[in-house]
Amino acid sequence: MRARRTETPSAPKLDWEIFRTLLPYIWEYRGRSIIAMVLLLLAKVATVSVPLVLKRMVDVLDASSGAILALPLGLLLGYGALRFTASAFEELRAALFARMRYGIMRKISLQVISHLHDLSLRFHLERQTGAITRDINRGASSISNLLNYLLFRIVPTLVEIGLVAAVLLKTYDAWFALVVVVTFTIYVALTLVVTEWRLRHRVAMNKAESRANAHAIDALINYETVKYFGNEAFEVARYDEDLIKWEAAAVRSQSSLSLLNLTQGLVIAVGVTLIMVLAAKGVVAGEMSVGDLVAVNAYLLQVFLPLGFLGTIYSVIKHALSDMERMFELLDREPEVQDIPDAQDLKVELGEVRFEEVEFGYDAERQIIHGLSFRVPAGKKLAIVGPSGAGKSTLARLLYRFYDVDAGTITLDGQDIAKATQRSVRDAIAIVPQDTVLFNDTIFYNIHYANLDATREEVVEAARVAAIHDFIESLPDGYDTVVGERGLKLSGGEKQRVAIARAVLKNPRILIFDEATSSLDSASEQSILSALRDVAAEHTTISIAHRLSTITDSDEILVMDGGRISERGTHAELMVLNGVYTNMWRLQQAEDDSCEASVEPLSP
């Protein structure tokens, strides 16, 4: 028995692991990154030079002997040039990073979507669509935020602090540099500790908000149900209960932010005061000029003003890393069904289908198929019937290789599908499912989706075969009519006819009809069955049916019960057996007779 793989999520990533995952994408833009870093350094050198020019200007203007106009004018022009140069380098760096920033977002988003399409059916049956799309959108946005704050806020601030500390150390007393470094260290440590504490309130606030939104959306989606039972007040009260929790968490979050801002202000005030005291003492002692005092003050503004955003930046980065982790977890999921190394494409020319001792279960405790064997010769029609839960639709999923069998083999024209590429297996088959879900696009798009190389004439012909062309032409926009979310603008029967048109347009060797006429009235059913018989004449056909009247012309009928074949044969042969199939037939005939009797007019 083959080991069953599972698509279990990976263990949570550490922050450094997320950065490591991101590095290969950044490395693709290493040329731009190097140039941008050089521009960053040049911009900060220009920025740090501004206070020195400012000091020189003040000292010249303060000279008691009278200043020559040309000198301060030159300094003023130099001051303006440095300001412009710093700004120009910053904007050039931003322009260079734009390509990297948005290019990485596009590539990762594309990779995630591609990977989701590669994941197996089990994952998509268990996932929450809203949560998945939210994780992708937030993850992609978080990449942009992370790169923006790291490369435009944190790295520039660190470079600037390093340059300022170096200038203060070289130009003035070492105490100036020491106070700046110590103040910065205390400020950062305090911010990180308090922000980590604040994040708990923020998380609680976000969870309460998500619950409130989920309840509100659920109630609005089920608007009619709320009205049926008169539960408007109950829904409003439930929404308010969530909002009360959100309000409490929001107040705690804001209060903790105020505490953080207060302590940050205290640290900066102490640091600035110490440095200004040192500078004032230097001026009084004649060791420093008034220009030096102005320069030191300018350096303090350059260093400490960006720190005011540190708490916000740290919080944003933590949230970004969390969102990116959820997105990268999707990439870490291994597909349950994978092509083997050097898998070959199937070459299906005849369309013979064979199941040999197939066993399968969705999990170890839920065995669905037990040692199933049957053969559908090329061009023949096989019908599969049985009660709900007998495993009928599971056979279609196995044939499509949405799951790998636990034991046994499934072959198409003698080729084991487990050794072939999944794409070639699915190219050989078309299905009309019981529940047809359409894209929120035009009718033409939904039919054409089955064969993207088909012409408009071929799409129209497929619609004719499916007996839906006249209906489409009766619509104001014809084939350009948008069907709505999940095709809700069409009736169940109309959606199934679109699905039949898809199968016709794809024109594979093997057709599967999974309750293909379950949503049609009797007249439409007969029209569709006639068309399907013409289509199936040149294809191998497997019909999964509930209404036995639709499969009486099958070459063989399998009666399944509990994942096993209990009876097999043609309609006539099974009726002679007087077994399960016969009982099902008689029961359905009685139901049909009862329905016909119920619509007969009453006697006057």
UniProtKB/TrEMBL annotation:
Secretion signal, residue range per the UniProt entry? none
- Location in the cell: Cell membrane
Q: Which UniProt keywords apply?
A: ATP-binding, Membrane, Nucleotide-binding, Transmembrane, Transmembrane helix, Transport
GO MF entries: ABC-type transporter activity; ATP binding; ATP hydrolysis activity
List this protein's GO terms for biological process: intracellular iron ion homeostasis
Q: Which residues form a coiled coil?
A: none
UniProt-listed SMART domains: AAA
**One Pfam family it belongs to:** ABC_tran
An example Gene Ontology CC term for this record: plasma membrane
Could you confirm whether the keyword Transmembrane appears in this record? yes
Q: How does it sit in the membrane?
A: Multi-pass membrane protein
Look up keyword Metal-binding and say if it applies: no
| Protein name (database record) | Metal ABC transporter permease
